[in-house]
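Workshop exercise sheet. Pairs work together: one partner reads the sequence aloud, the other fills in the structure field after running the prediction. Swap roles for the next sheet.
Pair: D.N. / O.F.
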Amino acid sequence: MTGGDVLAPHLHAHAADFLRGLRLHAVSGPDGAGAEEAARALRAAARRIGAALATFRALLDTAWADRLRAELTWLSGTLGQEYACTAQLVRLAEALARLSGGRPPALPPPRSGGEALAMGAARAGALLDRKLTQARSRAHSAALQALGSARFHALADTVALLASEAPLSPAASASAATALGDPARLAERRLLDAVAALPTAPAVGGEQQDAPWHQVRLLLRLHRYAEELLGAGPVRYEAGGALDRHRDAAEAAATAAGAARTPRIAPATAYALGVLHADQRHEVAAARTAFRHAWERTVVTTG
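Structure field:
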């Protein structure tokens, strides 16, 4: 079998998944019961098509692959914002409830101690709810606008063509072992190098170290999808899950810090948000430790 014999059906299948998500969206409507499931299906298919276009770019018309990948990234990011706001609001509300319910705060308490934290937690929760609800409404409007745009319809037309035909390059005529194996090993090499370059000592505050961890998360996803296409090698779900938790906690900490900069908020509210920020940064550190443990248990074949 050639590389094209393997890659083309893979792209056809995920393009068909994308179109099924599109049909579900059309049936359910923008605010119907199936809207969330449709958006999730569209994003999942977009991620897998985009990953294949990135890893196996040389086997395809590169200009076409780059354009399609950029559009899929745009769509996935736009559709994901609304649900990210919802998930973040739930996460922060649960953390505030836990912290104000007796867990020792991560910051030195003010003179009134737990009473100030309880009072501040209620006000902080209301502030976060207001900010994230507004952000979710804006994201919902942006998603609806995107799905009704000419840009999206052009993307859907391209994916519809991909469901039956993939623009392969001459490189796709090589054997599957070579045409697919070489790019997959390169994707793994990039992942291994990025993991090896992760900072080992925590920096003050820690936020400036988030970017390389987020990059490893993306590279790990590309590697996992390439392994799925090849049907061989370990699938690092545990390590990927740790990096997902790292991303969620880092973004929640950033939201808490941003809310704490709201003008004219009460000191107790600012204190509760500071405790919340510290708690989420603790979760970031825990996720990094969990990733390292999961990674060490994984057998890595570099080829």
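Discussion prompt: The chain has ten helices and no strands. What would you look at next?
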